[in-house]
């Protein structure tokens, strides 16, 4: 049993479900942000993805601006911005604008993956050699633009200059864990789709952490998928959307978020089932008590400072209900 419940936060990819328009998807995510603010979740983050029919979060800072205008106090941010896709000055300006609009509410989570397939990555980056290896240099440049270190002749991010927006590094491997440790930044691990290196990355981060102006001690966010419902049967039914999502990604089938199904066995081969269930093995589905126990075990195993929850639930109302049940069992309200 966890003596003190740690914060829970929300990751959202602004999913576009079958029979929904992009406009409706954005409005559904806005309603989710408003709901989880009411439920007392700590943060609401959006992830940058491109060329994905079922995800509407490509223009991440634009969506965040809309979310900020329709919420009051919950922290909002990127989970994350894929920095090698952008000029650091542009990101400093975008998030400087967000911070100016919504003071003390903005987080800047950064990743080095493209958030898309290789073909789309080359369109975004215009450089076949830009594989993310210069991510540390780009991070230094971004931090410079957000600092007050510039002299009168420096290029300045306006807005952005001097705001020192909190930065968090995201990753699914040990690379960003090592870099976050060296820079003294929080580290968020993507267990919701790539759990294999979770424990190793967390260990590396803790062992190598160096205090910084932003952070004095290691701070780890673990991201997982979770679904909560009144019954286990309902939760498992809702979770078939998540299973289908990963199945179609694995097949290279770029489709909208599917409706849940009562018969997954007719959709996949046994080897696909094994592969996908291993990939999402950190997912927690069930009743409030099952979800609570699962979260407590995860925290005990990782010593995480915060858990971020993504939810691949097709029906927007069921998604909000899931977060509400989790907030109640976790004592957030």
How would you sum up this structure, described in words?
The chain has helices at 22-38, 60-69, 88-101, 118-125, 135-146, 175-183, 198-208, 232-238, 240-251, 270-279, 288-302, 316-330, and strands at 8-12, 43-46, 75-82, 106-111, 167-171, 187-190, 220-228, 284-286, 306-310. 42% of the residues lie in helices and 15% in strands. The protein has an eight-stranded parallel β-barrel, surrounded by eight helices. With 333 residues, the protein is an alpha/beta fold. Helix 6 (175-183) links the parallel strand 5 (167-171) and strand 6. It has one domain (8-235, 285-330): TIM Barrel (Alpha-Beta Barrel). The chain is globular and about 65 Å long.
Fold topology:
Elements: E1 8-12, H1 22-38, E2 43-46, H2 60-69, E3 75-82, H3 88-101, E4 106-111, H4 118-125, H5 135-146, E5 167-171, H6 175-183, E6 187-190, H7 198-208, E7 220-228, H8 232-238, H9 240-251, H10 270-279, E8 284-286, H11 288-302, E9 306-310, H12 316-330
Helix pairs in contact: 1-12, 2-3, 3-5, 6-7, 9-10, 11-12
Keywords:
333 residues; TIM Barrel; eight-stranded parallel β-barrel; 12 helices; 42% helix; globular; oxidoreductase activity, acting on paired donors, with incorporation or reduction of molecular oxygen; CmoO-like; Luciferase-like_sf; Luciferase-like monooxygenase; Bact_Lucif_Oxidored
Q: Percent helix among the residues? A: 40-55%
Shape, please? Answer: globular
Work out the radius of gyration: 19 Å
Largest sheet: 8 strands, parallel, barrel
Instruction: Name the average pLDDT.
Output: 94
User: In CATH terms, what is the architecture?
Assistant: Alpha-Beta Barrel
How are strands sequenced across the largest beta sheet?
1-2-3-4-5-6-7-9
Calculate the terminal CA-CA distance, rounded to whole Å.
19 Å
Give the amount of beta strand, in percent.
5-15%
CATH class: Alpha Beta
Work out the helix count: 12
Name of the CATH superfamily:
Luciferase-like domain
Low-confidence stretches: none
């Amino acid at each position: 049993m966890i003596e003190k419940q740690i914060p829970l936060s929300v990751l959202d990819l602004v999913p576009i479900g079958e029979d929904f328009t992009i406009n409706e998807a954005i409005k559904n995510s806005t309603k989710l942000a408003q709901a989880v603010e009411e439920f007392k979740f700590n943060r609401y983050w959006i992830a940058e993805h491109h060329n994905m029919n079922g995800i509407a979060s490509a223009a991440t800072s634009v969506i965040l601006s809309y979310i900020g205008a329709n919420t009051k106090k919950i922290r909002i941010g990127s989970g994350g911005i894929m920095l090698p896709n952008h000029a650091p000055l542009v990101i400093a300006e975008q998030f400087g604008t967000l911070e100016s609009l919504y003071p003390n509410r903005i987080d800047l989570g950064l990743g080095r993956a493209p958030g898309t397939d290789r073909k789309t990555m080359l369109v975004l980056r215009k450089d076949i050699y830009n594989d993310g290896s210069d991510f540390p240099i780009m991070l230094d440049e971004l931090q410079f633009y957000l600092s007050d270190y510039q002299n009168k002749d420096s290029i300045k991010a306006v807005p952005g200059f001097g705001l020192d927006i909190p930065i968090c590094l995201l990753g699914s491997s040990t690379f960003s864990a090592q870099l976050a440790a060296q820079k003294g930044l929080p580290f968020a691990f993507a267990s919701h789709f790539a759990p294999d290196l979770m424990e190793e990355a967390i260990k590396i981060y803790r062992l190598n952490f160096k205090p910084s102006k932003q952070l004095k001690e290691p701070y780890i966010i673990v991201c997982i998928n979770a679904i909560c419902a009144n019954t286990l049967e309902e939760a498992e039914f809702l979770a078939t959307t998540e299973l289908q999502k990963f199945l179609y990604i694995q097949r290279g089938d770029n489709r909208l978020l599917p409706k849940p199904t009562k018969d997954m066995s007719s959709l996949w081969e046994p080897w696909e089932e094994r592969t996908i269930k291993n990939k999402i093995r950190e997912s927690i589905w069930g009743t409030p008590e099952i979800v609570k126990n699962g979260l407590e075990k995860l925290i005990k195993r990782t010593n995480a400072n915060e858990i971020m929850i993504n939810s691949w639930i097709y029906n927007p109302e069921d998604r909000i209900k899931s977060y509400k049940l989790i907030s109640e069992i976790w004592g957030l309200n």
